[in-house]
């Protein structure tokens, strides 16, 4: 029952995104609210057939007779959903709402292995060239780079991390957005402005295990996971003590990951910094 609202939101997005695109594209369901991990994974489930982790942990309901074990879309609806996500992910944003629309179509398209978008707005492209302070286009550039990483090209994401590293507001956005993404921030947001809002109350109790569980050399977003974990442990130092099981898991993964040859030099430096912090607290 706790997942009912999440499922309804995902259903509205799938039905809206698989319908013919309306003339007023800014009214699309993907532009109305900032979606989180659970909603995104449910939308991707309809595209890929791969169940989200949280669904796999649920006990299957007992039903009379055969019933589907995953969302079922007709062939025409599935094709339209795929083509619409691709079209929306290449949409030229004109307003903040349309930036939100574009980036939220971009991510599930990449997650489902569809063709990644080829173009970015001039403002979003700057985040892949040089350091910039935060704007709504930060999230657009991030979604583009993440989508490219899911398609096997990690370089845009590494460049994005490097060029936003020195900006305090971009670091704040990275943490606030990840906290929202995993559910450490419970309130729903209608636009991306919350990312740079100071004083948002979150601890990172969900973010910490979420990131550590995804510290695997083969994960498409491994460099982003390392960077966000490094930011988190600088911001919330007590997490290492509060969650010893996750900290032990983290300690056991650092060396192999740093030596894997699959992460950037910046990621190796951040892993060494994390290892030093754990060692100082007696966690080995």
Task: Give descriptors for this structure.
2 domains, 14 helices, 284 residues, globular, mainly alpha, single chain
Distance between the termini: 40 Å
Domain count, please report it: 2
User: How confident overall, as mean pLDDT?
Assistant: 89
Report the helical percentage. Answer: 55-70%
Oligomer description: single chain
Largest sheet: none
Which percent range describes the beta-strand content? under 5%
Number of strands: 0
Structural class: mainly alpha
Shape: globular
- What does the radius of gyration come to? 19 Å
N to C succession of SSEs: HHHHHHHHHHHHHH
How many DSSP helices?
Answer: 14
Brief characterization of the structure:
The chain has 284 residues and is an all-alpha fold.
Question: Any overview of this molecule?
Answer:
With 284 residues, the protein is mostly helical. Helix 11 (222-235) packs parallel to helix 14 (265-280) and helix 13 crosses helix 14. It is built from 14 helices and no strands. The chain folds into two domains: 1-55 and 73-186, no CATH class; 203-284. Helices cover 57% and strands 0% of the residues.
Give the helix/strand layout:
Layout: H1 4-17, H2 37-48, H3 53-56, H4 75-89, H5 96-111, H6 122-125, H7 136-150, H8 155-164, H9 168-182, H10 207-213, H11 222-235, H12 239-242, H13 244-258, H14 265-280
